[in-house]
């Protein structure tokens, strides 16, 4: 059975490394985007089973990225987890409206992140 | 900034309104005297006119006293007001003097502060990224090591030793069986030894029979000799029988000797066989003990190795978990970076604001005071974390909540 692929979008390299390590350790393939604009270039038709995105990023923030991603037919149903320092209700509502399925506040525990991933990831 | 020129002009141009009032009241008081005289003259010196004139004079006197008191009070009040205005002007001038150059300092120092914060943030970020990368690599290696140690190699070693022990025990058992077979052979040889004894007895019997036959043939020859010519033929037969009995006796003796030789050989073989069997049994016993000892030692070593391997695996797992915790802790860099970015951006914003104000002041535009509350409110809107808001509100920064997950 081939590995499932997860796209990590965060302007912080250290966060991408930590998330990537946790996911690779659990047997997932990982691709990275350093902001929303860069991540959109990774949505080139390849199969992506889940997206984990930060909110506050330069060039294109996470809400705008998810909104744009959801307009692409190939990724319309790809589940999205927002991973951010933000915990305000209005931001969460914006994330939900954009199409996110979960909101994880940093700092995260890898085990809990993996539990959320396994709950939401496409079969 | 309050207009100092206006304050100056207001203070210096404060009108002496008390003088006008005193002049007016003096005129009224002075006017009352001829009025009292007029009342006396009109009244013709009547009691009523005297009373009215007296009342008028008393009123004039009271008014004069009150006017004088009022004049002093007004003078004191004006003097106090003037003193306060002078103090206010002095204070304003001192404040202005104190603030003189503050804007310039801010415009120059704010970008320096912002750059210092950015440099510190950048250095921290680079260091944390390197740390995270190395820790992630360490965690990956440890994960691979733990995975490798769980592939059953230790159990394979135990299984191999167990199999070896069984096979060696089977060899020892086969050797014991072979030894048992040798014992059977020994028993057969012993039995053969017994048979040779019987053969020797039979050979002796043959020799004895031959000896008796020889005596019998000798007697027959004697009897044949007594019979004379008639017994000549019988004498020949008797002689032949005697020769045959002699041959039989010799053969019997030879058989006996041969059987004795064979028996001696069998005895030697038996003794040698017993000696070999004893040695074989001893060797087998020693081999069994050595095999058991070696297997036990190997087993102990393998078990020790396996325990060490398990300990290493457990320690590796513990270290891996610790590194995981360190990596979680290192996520603070993202939060710190965001906080420093907000401070840096606000410093830059203040710098730009001061530059704009300076430009407007140079053009003679009116500069309203900076609305501190509005500035702070704007700053608060940029926050993304609860601890930023807590610090902003003067509260102790709450520890970052760990992994708050909301599913939509």
TrEMBL record, chain A:
It comes from the Bacteria. InterPro entries: Bact_response_regulator, CheY-like_superfamily, Sig_transdc_resp-reg_receiver. Keywords: Phosphoprotein. Coiled coil: none annotated. SMART domains: REC (SM00448). The keyword Transcription regulation does not apply. PANTHER family: CHEMOTAXIS TWO-COMPONENT RESPONSE REGULATOR (PTHR44591:SF25), STRESS RESPONSE REGULATOR PROTEIN 1 (PTHR44591). The modification 4-aspartylphosphate is found at residue 54. The keyword Glycoprotein does not apply. This is Two-component system chemotaxis response regulator CheY. One of its GO terms (biological process) is phosphorelay signal transduction system. PROSITE patterns: RESPONSE_REGULATORY. Residues 5-121 form the Response regulatory domain.
TrEMBL record, chain B:
The chain crosses the membrane at residues 21-42, 48-67. It comes from the Bacteria. Signal peptide: none annotated. One of its GO terms (cellular component) is plasma membrane. Residues 114-331 form the Methyl-accepting transducer domain. Its main location: membrane. GO terms for biological process: chemotaxis; signal transduction. Keywords: Cell membrane, Membrane, Methylation, Transducer, Transmembrane, Transmembrane helix. It is found in: Cell membrane. This is Methyl-accepting chemotaxis protein.
């Amino acid at each position: 059975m081939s590995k499932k692929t997860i796209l990590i979008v965060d302007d912080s390299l250290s966060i991408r490394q930590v998330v990537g390590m946790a996911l690779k350790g659990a047997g997932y393939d990982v691709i990275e985007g350093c902001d929303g604009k860069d991540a959109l270039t990774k949505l080139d038709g390849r199969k992506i089973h889940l997206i984990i995105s930060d909110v506050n990023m330069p060039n294109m923030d996470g809400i705008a990225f998810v909104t744009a991603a959801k307009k692409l037919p190939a990724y319309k149903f790809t589940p999205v987890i927002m991973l951010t320092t933000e915990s305000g209700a209005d931001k969460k509502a914006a994330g939900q409206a954009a199409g996110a399925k979960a909101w994880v506040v940093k700092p995260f525990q890898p085990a809990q992140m993996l539990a959320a991933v396994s709950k939401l990831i496409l079969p | 900034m309050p207009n100092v020129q206006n304050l100056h002009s207001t203070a210096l141009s404060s009108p002496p309104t008390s003088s006008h009032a005193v002049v007016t009241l003096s005129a009224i008081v002075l006017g009352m005297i001829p009025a009292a005289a007029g009342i006396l003259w009109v009244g013709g010196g009547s009691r009523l006119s005297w009373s009215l004139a007296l009342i008028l004079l008393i009123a004039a006197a009271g008014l004069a006293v009150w006017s004088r008191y009022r004049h002093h009070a007004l003078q004191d009040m004006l003097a106090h007001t003037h003193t306060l205005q002078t103090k206010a002007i002095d204070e304003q001038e001192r404040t202005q003097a104190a603030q003189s150059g503050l804007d310039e300092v801010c415009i120059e120092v704010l970008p320096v502060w912002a750059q210092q914060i950015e440099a510190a943030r950048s250095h921290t970020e680079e260091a944390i990224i390197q740390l995270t990368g190395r820790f992630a690599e360490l965690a990956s290696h440890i994960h691979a090591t733990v995975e490798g140690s769980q592939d059953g190699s230790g159990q394979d070693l135990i299984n191999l030793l167990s199999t070896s022990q069984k096979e060696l025990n089977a060899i020892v058992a086969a050797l014991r069986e072979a030894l048992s077979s040798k014992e059977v052979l020994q028993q057969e040889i012993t039995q053969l030894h017994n048979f040779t004894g019987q053969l020797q007895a039979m050979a002796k019997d043959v020799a004895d029979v031959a000896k008796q036959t020889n005596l019998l043939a000798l007697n027959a020859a004697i009897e044949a000799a007594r019979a004379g010519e008639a017994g000549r033929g019988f004498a020949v037969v008797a002689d032949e029988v005697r020769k045959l009995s002699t041959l039989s006796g010799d053969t019997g003796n030879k058989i006996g000797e041969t059987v004795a030789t064979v028996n001696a050989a069998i005895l030697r073989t038996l003794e040698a066989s017993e000696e070999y069997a004893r040695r074989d049994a001893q060797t087998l016993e020693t081999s069994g003990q050595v095999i058991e000892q070696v297997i036990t030692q190997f087993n102990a070593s393998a078990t020790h190795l396996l325990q060490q391997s398990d300990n290493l695996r457990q320690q590796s797992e513990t270290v891996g978990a610790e590194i995981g915790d360190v990596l979680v802790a290192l996520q603070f860099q993202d939060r710190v970076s965001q906080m420093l970015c907000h401070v840096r951006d606000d410093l830059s914003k203040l710098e730009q604001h001061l530059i704009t104000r300076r430009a407007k002041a140079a053009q003679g535009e009116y500069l309203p005071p900076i609305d501190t509350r509005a500035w702070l409110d704007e700053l608060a809107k940029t926050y993304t974390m609860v601890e930023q808001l807590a610090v902003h509100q003067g509260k102790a920064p709450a520890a970052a909540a760990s992994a708050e997950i909301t599913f939509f």
